[in-house]
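Quick board copy: two proteins, each given as sequence then tokens.
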Amino acid sequence: MQSLQAKASEWSGVKQEDAFAIDDTNLFQKLGLQTFINLSTNFYTRVYDDEEEWFRSIFANSKKEDAIQNQYEFFVQRMGGPPLYSQRRGHPALIARHRPFPVTHQAAERWLHHMQQALDNTPDIDADSKVRMQNFFRHTAFFLVAGDELKSQNQQPPAPCKHGSSNQLPCKNF
């Protein structure tokens, strides 16, 4: 069975070492808190104004201000800053926190479209930092897709027992 990280690399086209190149530089120190706030604000403004109803509906039960705060606090924490997200919300546990949402290949690509536009329209992000962030975001988006597919597999009804025992009893397919 392929690991979630391996699937993320395959589907995103981003090697794991490129995705985690964000750890080679403290992007929080380099860019500062306000840049992350601006990026997340820019991103969620695009998301909540998205022309695609199916995509907007994913975020319908979240307040825009809360989504912005959750995202920038996670980014700050993940990219070398203080643990703002964990202090307020606990461990990020990305797959678990995204479990209620349909994290499909299509949704990941739409999310990445908006993030690319937000990165391009946040002037304080230099070219090197942008590449590092793009690779991390792309890989992570498809890591979440892989996690969503795992969730779907775990929700499948149990396979019929090939030994003919009742579905009421645990099956031991040897």
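And the next:
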Amino acid sequence: MAAADSPTAALRRRDLCSRGIRLAGKMRSDVVDLLDTYVERQGLDASASVAAVEGVPAAAVERWDEQTGTQRLLENLAAYRAFRVLLAQMLDEQREQLGEADAALGRALAAVLLQVSAFTYHLEELLRLESRGPPSEEGAGPPPAPHLGLFERKLRGLGVLRELAQWAVRSARDLRQLAKPGPGSSAAASLAESP
């Protein structure tokens, strides 16, 4: 635990948080662009109402200010692991549905999937720095893709992308909070308060 409190660890944590904030900002920008393309190519209405996507925790959280840094990191990690699976499913469905007819949409989905994977790894690094390794992925993540009709899959994809955009905003906010110096953001306080 002493290593997590050292000045070197604090600088490393701040550096990882700063890079994570930039990654989250870039990811959000790319997801918003992808959302526009997705809506257009799938023939959807941008204002379509979409139900919550099963297996993805909502980015909105009550009592956000009461969460510890470790709790924030763990929730982010669970969400991005779920997004990694969901985006891979969307990419497979896209290839099945359109083949190479819409290669641009497939490339954009693949690029966002790569960003989500990189951000997941980044969160795991932050958890290791906090003297707490990331939880295993066994049994984690969303349930297998349900057998949905074409329109339902399109709506589910829209919901996944919308929620991912919200998570990118929350992640940047969580990392800004974690990077703040002070007793509330130190590794020792985060670990002591976590269950």
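Board note added afterward: Confidence is low (pLDDT under 50) at residues 184-195.
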